[in-house]
Every structure is written in C-alpha cells, then in structure tokens.
Write a structure and sequence with these properties.
GO terms for molecular function: ATP binding; nucleoside diphosphate kinase activity. Its EC number is 2.7.4.6. Belongs to the NDK family. It catalyses: a ribonucleoside 5'-diphosphate + ATP = a ribonucleoside 5'-triphosphate + ADP; a 2'-deoxyribonucleoside 5'-diphosphate + ATP = a 2'-deoxyribonucleoside 5'-triphosphate + ADP. It holds the Pfam family NDK. The structure is a single chain. This protein is α+β, with helices and mostly antiparallel strands and 153 residues long. The protein has a single domain, classed as 2-Layer Sandwich (Alpha-Beta Plaits), CATH 3.30.70.141. Helix content is 39%, strand content 18%. The chain is built from 8 helices and 4 strands, in the order βααβααβααβαα. The protein has a 4-stranded antiparallel beta sheet. It is globular and about 45 Å long.
Length: 153
C-alpha cells in the first residue's frame, strides 16, 4: 500500500456555531480516514496570523483573521491514503458556489467568508499546520481495526 499521509482539517467558527461538527467528523470517518488528533480551541490573533501568513498580503486577510477569532475552532488531524488531496476534495472548492453537491462546502455553505472548514492544500502545508496546531504528544498513533477492510494490504 502507498504510504499513509496526514492532513490538517479545521472546522471554522461558522461550522461550530451551526452545529456541523458531528456531521463533518462523520464524513471523514465514513470515508475511511482515521482521526489522530482533535481539540476545540480559541486560538489568538497571533496564532491565526501565523497560520494564514501566506495570505497576509491579500486584501481580505484582516477580515479573515477577525472572523477566525470570533468563535471556537475544532482542529483535527486525519490519516489515510492521499489524505490531503482527498480531504480537499471532500471539503469542496474554497468558494462554496463552485462546490459540488456532496462536498462539505457544497452542502453546508454559500459564501467564501463562511465556508465551514479549512483543509491543508499540500503535504508540506499539512506538516506545517499540524506542527502549528498540535504538539507531538497530542498526535495519537494507533491502528484501526477496520484498516484491512478499507485498504488492500
């Protein structure tokens, strides 16, 4: 089997406030991904500015950070085959209007500024984001009893 990969997924304040946490987690579990870290948090402005540093020159940066500090966030790490690419596909396009029905954004959101989730866009960014949001001791290494039913071994 190809190597396992980890991705960072965050449920943004709108997803938490709208009670979509369970539905989003369920989709990743049903797809066959394994959760290795989960926490609810209210990161400060400095943390979010660091997380979104690549967008710091964009005109919407301040509004994005203001929005992200407006409520709790669910930070998660999921593991599985092609977790980054598949996770992005499950989330849908950044602009929910371009997201297909069946994707998280396509089913639950309408505007870019309230698009429910963040997902890593590459393995490199996933590794960076996981390290930014979780200490190594918060990542749980475990084997799923369903592994051989999900993957060809």
């Amino acid at each position: 089997m190809a190597s396992r990969e980890r991705t960072f997924i965050a449920i943004k304040p709108d997803g938490v406030q709208r009670g979509l946490v369970g539905k989003i987690i369920q989709r990743f579990e049903e797809r066959g991904f394994k959760m290795v870290a989960l926490k609810i948090c209210a990161p400060g402005r400095a943390h979010l500015e660091k997380h979104y540093a690549d967008l710091s020159k964009k005109p919407f940066f301040k509004d994005l950070v203001d929005y992200m500090v407006s409520g709790p966030i669910i930070a998660m790490v999921w593991e599985g085959l092609n977790a980054v690419k598949c996770g992005r596909m499950m989330l849908g396009e950044t602009n929910p209007q371009a997201s297909l029905p069946g994707s998280i954004r396509g089913d639950f959101s309408i505007q870019v500024g309230r698009n429910i989730c963040h997902g890593s866009d590459s393995v490199e960014s996933a590794n960076h984001e996981i390290a930014l949001w979780f200490n190594k001791n918060e990542l749980v290494n475990w084997e799923s009893a369903m592994y051989t039913w999900i993957y060809e071994v």
